[in-house]
Inverse folding.
């Protein structure tokens, strides 16, 4: 691994800032969850804009409130949500690479459009991997900037590659138009094994209702509120839970499971949101409305391959 040096110091921590690489895979048999960025789209673009390879750790900033001081010149990019980011009090251009000079203050205020922003540094952040990943999962005490699953705190320092670029990469990639997270559009769902156990009325409502994002939402999952869905299954043997699984507990209100989900669950499922649908859902503020749209496996796979193809 390339030598690491101090890159940014934390002068105000904000509610939640976590270091995330692509995630921790191959360990769910141990009861260890995936972690990684809940908005894969924003995280991938932040890294891509500064020339980083897929999987390079970036900082996930939720709600804002974070303030960092550069300890050296760095090329950075912020993608994902607009959290009112500024450099030395002046608005920071997001979804494009910029140069942060030594001593400058990078601050995130509060949500303007979306919920989670991603900060990438050319060359990448550096931390000690745990189970082959630096993805931070606070519940399990794994990964992150310190290897123990902690969110950033005042006084922490973020390490970067000693080979980190100080200037914006020449010919840096340009993303498509930044998403409007206030208009998330239909979220693609792959129907699941228990879909036939739900009543016809419930299925009609599931796919023809505007669901509201509840305030009970975090990196583990997002509860949706709307009409009560009814399932003929009263009990189930627990099954493995994948990203985006839409469980329906007895109260009939769906729970969409995200990156820090449990590894098994026993509630019936409508199916699973695609990774890109999960990304859009992760940017929704409480009270925002979303719609569920069934998609075929072929369509979902083609969309994901097209997305991943951008990043090599």
């Amino acid at each position: 691994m390339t030598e690491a040096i101090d890159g940014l110091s934390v002068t105000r921590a904000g509610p939640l800032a976590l270091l995330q690489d692509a995630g921790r895979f191959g360990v769910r048999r141990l009861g260890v969850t995936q972690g990684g960025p809940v908005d894969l789209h924003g995280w991938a673009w932040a890294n891509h804009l500064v020339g980083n390879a897929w999987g390079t750790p970036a900082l996930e900033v939720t709600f804002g409130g974070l303030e960092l001081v550069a300890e050296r010149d760095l090329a950075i990019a912020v993608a994902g949500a607009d959290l009112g980011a500024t450099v030395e009090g002046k608005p920071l251009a997001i979804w494009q690479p910029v140069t942060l000079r030594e001593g400058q203050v990078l601050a995130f205020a509060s949500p303007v459009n979306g919920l989670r922003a991603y900060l990438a540094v050319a060359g990448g952040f550096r931390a000690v991997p745990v189970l082959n990943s630096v993805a931070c999962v606070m519940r399990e005490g794994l990964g992150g900037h310190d290897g123990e699953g902690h969110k950033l705190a005042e006084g922490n320092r973020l390490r970067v590659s000693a080979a980190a670029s100080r200037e914006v990469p020449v010919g840096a990639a340009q993303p498509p138009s930044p998403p409007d997270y206030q208009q998330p559009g239909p979220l693609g769902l792959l129907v699941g094994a228990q879909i036939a156990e739900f009543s016809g009325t419930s299925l009609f409502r599931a796919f023809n209702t505007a669901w509201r994002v509840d305030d009970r939402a975090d990196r583990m999952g997002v509860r949706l509120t709307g009409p009560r869905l009814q399932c003929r299954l009263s009990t189930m043997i627990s099954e493995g839970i994948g990203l985006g699984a839409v469980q329906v507990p007895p109260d009939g209100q769906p729970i969409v499971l995200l990156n820090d989900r449990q590894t098994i669950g026993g509630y019936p499922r409508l199916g699973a949101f695609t990774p890109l649908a999960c990304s859009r859902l992760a940017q929704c503020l409480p009270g925002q409305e979303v719609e569920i749209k069934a998609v075929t496996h072929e369509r979902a796979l083609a969309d994901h391959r097209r997305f991943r193809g951008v990043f090599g």
Notes: The longest helix spans residues 297-309.
